[in-house]
Automatic annotation (TrEMBL):
InterPro entries referenced in this protein's UniProt entry, alphabetically: COV1-like
Keywords noted in UniProt: Membrane, Transmembrane, Transmembrane helix
Name under which the protein is recorded: DUF502 domain-containing protein
Stretches of the chain forming a coiled coil according to its record: none
Length: 196
């Protein structure tokens, strides 16, 4: 009985939480869009009209950010606001998280690697880029140093280490699958999702 309940919970919980999360996001954006429509004196004509408006605004913003004067103006405003320490901290963190979700900004050379530990075990890491900042390379001994991210299980945080390229073992494993493996401490994998 307990095993059956656990199996049902483990299979239903991810689906229910995912649907709830996306539904909550839809409701929030739809509410924001309805508020914009009502402030303009327009009555929403169908369910989801607010969400559609927000999606259109985001799309138009994406088009505008491909125009140089708009990008320059936005960068100028951003630089001015960054002069305020509290805003800089909050905005910088949100911008970095948004950049992580943007596939266009991800390095094309992201590579899953293994690094041997002192006790003979191996840890999974990700080469996040080929360029190490000059102040760090100046402080390090000679060698080809690369930034490697070690993701912590069950959280989005990780530890970035500088490792010599010769000490890395490259693994033919996609970034997404390896990240899922790290985030769940090896409990979940793409095979599990495919079979379920």
């Amino acid at each position: 009985m307990k095993k059956t309940l656990t199996r049902g919970l483990m299979n239903l919980l991810p689906m229910v939480l995912s649907i709830w999360l996306f539904w909550s996001l839809f409701i929030s954006l739809d509410g924001l869009g309805r508020l914009l429509l009502e402030s303009l004196g327009v009555k929403p004509i169908f369910i989801g009209a607010g969400f559609t408006l927000v999606a259109v605004i985001i799309f138009i913003a994406g088009l505008l950010f491909s125009v140089s004067p708009i990008v320059w103006l936005y960068s100028w405003v951003e630089r001015q606001l960054m002069k305020f320490p509290l805003f800089k901290s909050v905005y910088g963190s949100i911008r970095d998280i948004a950049a992580l979700m943007n596939n266009d900004n991800k390095p094309k050379n992201q590579q899953t690697v293994l690094i041997k530990q002192a006790n003979g075990s191996y840890i999974v890491g990700f080469i996040m880029g080929d360029n190490t900042p000059a102040p760090l390379t100046d402080a390090l001994p000679d060698g080809d140093w690369v930034p490697v991210l070690f993701q912590l299980s069950y959280q989005m945080a990780g530890v970035t280490s500088l490792v010599k390229r010769e000490d890395l073992i490259e693994v033919q494993w996609s970034f997404e699958e390896a990240m899922r493996f790290n985030l769940t401490a090896g409990i979940s994998s793409s095979k599990d999702i495919a079979h379920n």
